[in-house]
Amino acid sequence: QVQLVESGGGLVQAGGSLRLACAVSGVIVSSNTINWYRQAPGKQRELVAFITSNEYRYHAGSVKGRFTISRDNAKNTVYLQMNSLKSEDTAVYYCNSIGDWGQGTQVTVSS
After folding, report:
1. CA distances to 7, 102, 106 from 34, in Å
2. Residue 36 near residue 92, CB atoms below 8 Å
3. Phi-psi bin for 105: left (phi > 0), alpha (psi -120 to 50), beta?
4. Is 108 helix (H, G, I), strand (E, B) or coil?
5. Quick check: 81 and 67 in contact, CB under 8 A?
6. What is the C-alpha to C-alpha distance for residues 74 and 87, in angstroms, rounded to an integer?
């Protein structure tokens, strides 16, 4: 059974930083693509970043240069380092592997 558990969200001022973690069980992160999505109120869920088995990293244009996806194979965990946060980054952030989703973690950026 695949489980993804997000953590690290919270309330931060604009310009601040947060690091989200996605602890994964049932899937080996180094052998799979792991995605970070986000969903803001009233908006569709959007892809933020992903990392593939061979460590190719993609970041959406809206976060490129500010967010960085990484992983720790020993901990089977994928991270999303978020710097220079903006109010428009406010959303629930989810990690995803194929058809499985975590419960999400709320990120709120105050201006």
Report:
1. 15, 11, 19
2. no
3. beta
4. strand
5. yes
6. 34
